[in-house]
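INSTRUCTION: Work out how this chain folds

Fields: amino acid sequence; protein C-alpha cells

Chain under study, with its fold:
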Amino acid sequence: MNNSNKMPIVLIGNSFKYEIESVCKLFFHTERFIFSDKVEDAKGESFIIAVVSRGDEITLSADVRLNGGEAAFRECRLPLDSEDKTVEMELCRLIYGILSSKTGIVPPWGLMTGIRPVKKVTELMEQGLNRDEIERRLTEKYQISRKKFDLVYETAVNQQPILESIDRSAASLYVSIPFCPTRCSYCSFVSHSIASAKKLMPEYVDALCRELKILGEIVRDTDTKIDTVYFGGGTPTSVSAEELRKIMDAVGSNFDLTKIREYSVEAGRPDTITEEKLRVIKEMGADRISVNPQTLNDDVLRVIGRKHSGEDAIRAFELAREIGFDNINTDLIAGLPTESAESFRNTLDRICELSPESITVHTLTVKRSAELFRDGNINMDNPAAEMVDYSIEKLMSQGYAPYYMYRQKNTVDNLENVGYAKKDYESQYNIFIMDETQTILGAGCAASTKLVYPDGLITRIHNYKYPYEYISRFEQLMEKKGEVIECLKKIKSMMLK
C-alpha cells in the first residue's frame, strides 16, 4: 500500500506516535497511518494534526478532518511542569473527543488502550482504595463504561486469592509447538501448517527436547521451582502421539513436576484430537486441557478455514471426558465473519450444556498478518458487542466467574478477551502471564522467556520465530541461556534479602 492510501497524522512538538495511533485505532480498526512532523503533509480527505507547544504554559491542540468534512479543532492548557505522561494523555483525550464526536463511536473501554486492564484495578486496590473510589478514578481518567468497569473489577477480585498465593521465586514453563493442520483466516500467530512443515517436524521435536534438557539443568543449578507448565502453539496436538509423548517425556525427565500446581496442554483444534493423543497427555501428567472449536456453526467454520465440524468438537470434548479429564477449557470467538448473534448464542448455550470447567470468550482481532485484514472493515461489521454482552450474562448465570482478561489492538468493537471458570478451576498460568508477577521460561520456536524481578523489572529473551531458524541457529540461541542463569540467580538472591 502506498502512502497516498494512509491517513496522515502530523505530530508537532511531540513524539507520542504509539499512544496517538492506539487511540486512532479505537475508531479505525484496519486503517493505516503515515506519520510526519510537517503541517504541509496534512492533506487529503482525512488527517489529524496533534500539536504541543511550550511557553508560559503547555498548549495542546488537535485538528481533525475526516472524509472531506469540516475540520474540528480543540485545545487545552497544562502547567509547564506537567509530566510527559500527563501531556500525552491529555493530547490523546483531545483527539479521542473529536473522533468520538465525528464518528458517533463511543468505545466501551474509553481511552484505555493497554492490554492488561485488570492491573489498573489491582494497583489501586493495593493502595487501599475501595470499589467506588477505583471506579471514580478509572472513569475520570479513561472514560470507561460502567459495564466494563463492573467486569474488570470482578475479574480483579477473583484473581486476588491466586495472586496472593504466588511463589514469586518460582517459575512457570511454556512449551511452544507452533504447528496447525491449516491456518485459520483470523490467525496472526507465528504458526505453520503441518503440510508445509512436515519435513522439519522430527528436527524440531529433537531441538525442542534439547532445549528442555538445557532449561532443566538451569532450573536445577539455580534451585528454581517449577510452578505451572503450559503447552501452547499453534496446536500442540498437531504433532503425532509419539512426538507428543517424546516432548512431554522431556519435560517430565528434566523438571521436578511433583509439586507443580497446574499442567495444561492446549489440545486445541478438534480435528487434531485423537484418543491416542489424549491418553498420552493424561498418562504424562497433564491435568488441564483445552478443546477449542471457536464456534459450533459449520458454515462459519468453513469461512474461517477450519476442516472440522461443530459435532467433531462435541465428540472431542466427550472423548476427553471419557478418558478422565476433569478440567477442560473451551475457547470461543465472538465476532467471527458471517457469525450471527443467534448463532453465537446457540454455540455458547451448547457449550454450557457440556459443562466445561472453564470457558474463554475471545473477541475477533484482525491483525495485518491475518488473511482477514485484506478485507478491511467488511469483516468488522458484525454484532460482536451483542455476543460479548450475552456471554457475560449467560456465563455468570451458569456459575462461571471472570478470572483473567486481556485486550488486543484491532479487536472488533474494541472489546476484550475473558476467561471464565467455575470456582477453583481458574488457570493459574493464565493469571501469571497476564499479571506479569512470575517468571515464565519459554521453550521452542517463537517462545519468549520473561524474567520477573521482585522490584518489578522484567527482562525478556526471545527465541527465533520460525522453525527452520530455530533449528539451524540452535547453538547460537542456546548461548542466550547464560543470561537466563544470571537472571534467575539474581532473582533468587533478591528474594532472600
